[in-house]
């Protein structure tokens, strides 16, 4: 097999959730009294941990308002916003293919919180797909490579036998920092030209192409 361990980002790579993230963050910023946030600005921070995302979106925000924005975002994303979220077409079938060889391991490295990822696992009935996962609130946010280092250690895989798959420069730079192979996907939130700056070993332009390439 090409890799013993395939590590996926969640939002924008497996899950088509950018629209809900954007609308939830915009509503939260308005309710926190920060003002309007553009779609482009919010899409840019998808993949970061929530505190890091708020700090980048709202430079100079004080702690009290940042906490209000965080709590309102959580409300809208979980309860207040009904924008549909589902796996990108072909993800279910592709992951099923990768799970067939007994020696291959799958993992998730995400900017979501542990609570948020576990909710995503439950709602999509996908938690059993993965052998391990890391979230931004239990380690360090992307692009720091700590969550990848922890996944390698937990699963006993050398960096040369692993690959990170993501739709943002944060995913790819996290892997690049430890010289891990990285695959860019073009259906997420960062433009292909931006992803290419991180020198991915492969750029997938469709879900089918991604899983065909990984399952070699």
Which terms summarize this structure?
globular, 216 residues, 6-stranded parallel β-sheet
Low-confidence stretches: none
The tally of helices reads 10
Largest sheet geometry = 6 strands, parallel
Structural class by sheet pairing and helices: alpha/beta
Query: In sequence order, what are the helices and strands, one letter per element?
Result: EEHHHHEHEHEHEHEHEH
The number of distinct β-strands equals: 8
**What would the principal axes of the Cα set say about the shape?**
globular
Q: What is the first-to-last residue Cα distance?
A: 6 Å
Strand arrangement within the widest β-sheet reads 5-4-1-6-7-8
Q: Rg to the nearest angstrom?
A: 17 Å
Mean pLDDT: 96
Strand residue percentage: 5-15%
Q: Helix content range of the residues, please?
A: 40-55%
